[in-house]
Amino acid sequence: MDNDRYDILIAEIRKLNTALERLAGPAPIESDWTSADCFVWAPGRLYLQPVPKPNRVALTLIRGVDRVRDILHENTQRFAEGFPANNVLLWGARGMGKSSLVKAVHEDVRAASGVSLKLVEVHREDISTLPVLLDLVRDTPHRVIVFCDDLSFDHDDTAYKSLKAALDGGVEGRPENVVFYATSNRRHLLPRHMMENEQSTAINPSEAVEEKVSLSDRFGLWLGFHKCGQDDYLAMIDGYAAHYDLGLPQDKLHADALEWATTRGGRSGRVAWQYIQDLAGRLRRKVQ
Predict the structure, then answer these.
(1) pLDDT digit string (tens) for 213-228?
(2) Where are the domains of the chain?
(3) Residue 33 CA: distances (Å) to CA of 22, 30, 86, 167, 173
(4) Cα(46)–Cα(120) distance, rounded to whole angstroms?
(5) Judging by DSSP bridges, how do beta strands 88-92 and 221-225 pair with one another?
(6) pLDDT tens-digit profile of 168-181?
(7) Which residues, in sequence order, are bridge partners of residue 41?
């Protein structure tokens, strides 16, 4: 083979190699567990993206959910200490602090126990990659809470099968160092009208939705969050105002906060926090 033909062949091989590398995508990045306590799962790169400054509030600032707070804290404490703990589904009213509670409890238990307790958030659209994530964390020395916020499934969505496999653990079993926490507005993770539609069109209505509804049964703990009353709402306002030393007289603070809730169409932890942010802005105070 002459030199010209040889050079052409080498050039073509290099082009082919470049094309294959593009198709394969970027090489996986090795995750560094020591870089943070909270991570976001990036399945495309098989990478745990560290979150140096998580968006969370102190556990003492979460009011009106004392019972579920204590249950979640105890479950997380047992898990951190290496004892049996349940997967947890936090479900119910919007804006009542479900995801805030998970993040706050994680930080409180981690700081108090000194255990290497990690929180890994999985986006709803990445649920199908859970088995890959579990393989990645199975052999780490860390205790890992895998967390999915606002979890729900729509019609013909098959990603729930990956979640069921992860919760049940399959043949290998769920990794001993992993527990799964999820939040949802739906107790059974499916909209009611879809469940009713499945039942009305099925040959055997009682079995039509059993597979999907049984998904919530894989969570050992169901913690319900309900709409808060005026007293709980004002207790949240008082807690935030005291913590950030906003200095407004209580009667003025309460009247202002109730007016804010009226304009928002309801009371919740989220509405309370939005009011505090607005008030702090008007007073030119920082709340972070």
Answers:
(1) 566 778 889 999 988 8
(2) 33-225, 230-282
(3) 28, 10, 24, 23, 23
(4) 13
(5) parallel
(6) 766 566 789 999 99
(7) 48
